[in-house]
């Protein structure tokens, strides 16, 4: 069901050579880009009419309007299963605790007497958030996007999720209920690349959508391609690819836990990646044996779990030691990394590349997906080596405020003139000379 990669016995290669040996899903955003281009430009030129046509073509729904009536949000919350509501409220509470602590405050540095640089943090003015609605419904993604934006102080937040034929052309009611719990009343029944285009260009009319400064949220390859298409026009969080879990484990790990955690991510998508890195051949055998009954007992077997576990993106990777395992998981840069080893906290502290790290047997990825308080919108495809997950900082911009007195400027002016002339930009130096009647100290 799951392949093996044996890296024992030889010295592990460095950097990119090691990364190339590891499994990874194929996710060709560039190829998808050409297919989403006409959809995006259609929204640009025809606005809401293009969104309505896209809903009919891709979702099989004929819409009269794209904006969700506020009453539908209220009705969805009132009809929500009380247990689901309680779970969502607890997820929101924990996420707020963590994200509120990420807020930044302005800081002023006195560089010299009379010369200061202040860094102030300003939230983006408006964000468009995307909640997928394909194989599964993700109210948890609504929470993970809305909470950090709200805690950052974003004043205008809109959300889009695909129209659902089963629910009369509205997004899934649990998505709507989550929006209501969070106080988000600007919601659109729009999906895929068209939704991203709606946020990027805006749509006119009484039920139209104002352009956003930034778009965040996970989605299909078409959403990722649309984000790439609009990079430069709008800010984005990331081009999210298929989900991935890596588990670094030794002989102390419980194979029942490890197998369950691999399956938990495999059920997302047939391209989901499930990777076990271990120095214990006995654990590898036990996990492989344990996968069979657990897969047989789960849901989404044929369309997601089995294709994900048996695909080229999933594998059991055998290494000589936990030390080698650390090198492998750092080269892999997993979206979710579980450490199930002896002294797991110490091993986790040495990891450099991961979207989020889950320490020990009682911190499974599922906890982070819903109720740890951490954010589950994380870098995929190895991007954890240079990118972070969604946070309050994602919605903030640092602005430097430079304040120098005449005396402070005069003291450093000759250095500015020297560097300007070294770069053959004499007008830069002249801007300093003009302030001192061409009498620059030191010249």
Sequence-ordered SSE layout with sheet pairings:
Elements: E1 3-6, H1 15-20, H2 29-46, H3 48-59, H4 70-79, H5 82-100, E2 107-112, E3 115-123, E4 126-130, H6 139-152, E5 156-161, H7 173-182, E6 187-189, H8 192-201, E7 214-216, H9 221-230, E8 235-236, E9 244-249, H10 255-266, E10 273-278, H11 281-297, H12 301-310, E11 315-318, H13 322-332, E12 334-340, H14 344-348, E13 354-359, H15 365-370, E14 396-404, H16 406-422, H17 426-433
Parallel strand pairs: 1-11, 4-5, 4-7, 5-6, 7-8, 9-10, 9-12, 10-11, 12-13
Antiparallel strand pairs: 2-3, 3-14
Structural summary, described in words:
The protein has 443 residues and is an alpha/beta fold. Helices cover 44% and strands 17% of the residues. The chain is built from 17 helices and 14 strands. The chain has helices at residues 15-20, 29-46, 48-59, 70-79, 82-100, 139-152, 173-182, 192-201, 221-230, 255-266, 281-297, 301-310, 322-332, 344-348, 365-370, 406-422, 426-433; strands spanning 3-6, 107-112, 115-123, 126-130, 156-161, 187-189, 214-216, 235-236, 244-249, 273-278, 315-318, 334-340, 354-359, 396-404. The strands form three sheets. The protein has a six-stranded parallel β-sheet, sandwiched between helices. A five-stranded parallel β-sheet has the order 6-5-4-7-8, with helices on both faces. A three-stranded antiparallel β-sheet has the order 2-3-14. Helix 7 links the parallel strand 5 (156-161) and strand 6 (187-189). 48% of the residues are buried.
